[in-house]
Amino acid sequence: MKRKKNKKVYIGLSIDILHHGHINLINKAQKFGDLIIGLYTDKAIVQKKRLPLISYENRKKILKNISGVKKIIPQNEWEYCNNLIKIKPDFMVHGDDWKLDDQNLRLKTIKTLKKINAKLIEIPFTKNISSSALSARMFSQNMLPSNRMSSLKRMIESGKFCRIIETHSPLSALIAENTFLKNKDGSRNEFDGFWSSSLTDSTLKGKPDIEVLGINQRLSNINEIFDITTKPLIMDVDTGGKLEHFEINVKTIQNSGVSALIVEDKKGLKKNSLFGLDVKQEQDSIKAFSKKIQIGKKVSNPEFMIIARIESLILNKTVSDAFKRAKAYISAGADGIMIHSKQNTPKEIFKFSKIFKKKFPNIPLIAVPSSYNKVTEKQLMKNGFNVVIYANHLLRASYPAMKETITSILKNKRSYEIDNKLMSIKNILELIPGTK
Ligand code: SPV
Ligand code: MG
Fold it and tell me: Mean pLDDT of all residues in the chain?
């Protein structure tokens, strides 16, 4: 078939992995006219799937060099309707495998095509090649520290609300990496990354949360997690320690592949914030803490995030004190603000977020709803938060389970009674590939 003159053809592609299935599609599509590709932006992809490893600009560069591609435009939403109405192509080409997915997208597209008098051409998909399977393999093999490091900032910038869970061990991280629920449209409801908590890392080692674990011990824990996972990690670095140490530690943390650190504006012997004023805790001065941020920013990569954690509300100070600090820390270069609270409702953090987002709509805002745990992710999003951290839940889940098991065996002088609450022997043998 000769290329049709003066006709326009549209395809939507994301091509994080370009394979021969895409080339087959492009070759067939271009025969119907001038081929316009709607290249999915990061923002569109994260609506339904994982952030791609390769950035939009680099994916565009690859696509530009493929023969038959006449024009590339951004595909900003998961659905094609807006681009189709804008471009008014004569044809839209799609692999017929979308019939196996959720029908919503296909039906909406057909409706829009009818409206603009365009024809849908469904091409049999190339057998034995699956982007999802390749993508899973690519993520597991290509998650170099630098890729992982930059992925959180890209994810937040793409507009995604990030859901982060505390992981204190490789096993807990493996569960967080692989557990997901399927949404109606086929997309996954899952965690976007991990939190390395000073509280649970210390507790796991039977030590108090007073900055007693050295940064190297914390990082060795994180490196074990990184060996077997691909998602980004935010590290709780307490007060960040001495200024001179902070400078060196930021570099080491960043180079290991951590995406962001959260440093709190306290000084002296650090005590866990959730104690509030039941223990002696002192807030750092705005000047000294701003200096810490500046030093950290000076030695870190632009894609690495230094997030300032404001402890004013923990110490019963006002929302306006917290906001004054937020302004200063952002001027010092902070890439985001975590506003902490030990209240059992989100009232005060919402008061803060209202003022904060008015002045800084584009600066990421992070919540740690441990005490105000009735708040929903939807409410956090509505109030301008970009990231939620469930900061201690997996360790808190494991402790009572272990304690109950111990107690049951002691009581019954055998393990039979507790067995139905435990993972089966079969499941543990099959959990880690290569065990057999
Ligand atoms: C942690 O998880 O160690 C934190 C959050 O710093 S909190 O325990 O709420 O202070
Ligand atoms: Mg902590």
Answer: 93
CA of 271 to the centre of ligand 1 (A): 10
Distance CA 418, CA 137 (A): 38
CATH number for the domain that contains residue 313? 3.20.20.60
d(CA 7, CA 307): 51
- In angstroms, rounded to a whole number, what is the distance separating the alpha carbons of residues 429 and 436? 7
Q: How far is the CA of 344 from the centre of ligand 1 (A)?
A: 15
pLDDT digits (tens, 9 = 90+) for 174-226: 999 999 998 888 788 999 999 999 999 999 999 999 999 999 999 999 999 99
Domain count across the chain: 3
- Confidence bin at 2 (pLDDT 50/70/90): low
Residue 91 contacts residue 56 (beta carbons within 8 Å): no
Out of 167, 221, 222, 273, give the residue to mutate to test ligand 1, the one with the largest number of ligand atoms within 8 Å of its CB. 273
Last residue within a domain, chosen from 102, 132, 162: 132
Per-residue pLDDT tens digits for 56-67:
999 999 999 999
pLDDT for 142 equals: 67
- At residue 270, the pLDDT reads 86
* d(C-alpha 271, C-alpha 282), whole Å: 9
Does residue 198's CB lie within 6 angstroms of at least one atom of ligand 1?
yes
